[in-house]
Amino acid sequence: MTTQQILMHFRESAELKMQAAEQLAEPIMQAIEIMFSALANGNKILACGNGGSAADCQHFAAELIGRFERERLPLPAMALTTDSSILTAVGNDYGFAEVYSKQVQAFGQAGDVLLAISTSGNSNNVVHAIEAALEREMRVVALTGKSGGLIATMLGENDAHICVPHDRTARIQEIHLLTIHCICDGIDNALFGEQASEHASEQAGEQIGEQIYE
Question: What residue numbers bound the domain in which 199 lies?
Answer without folding.
Answer: 26-213
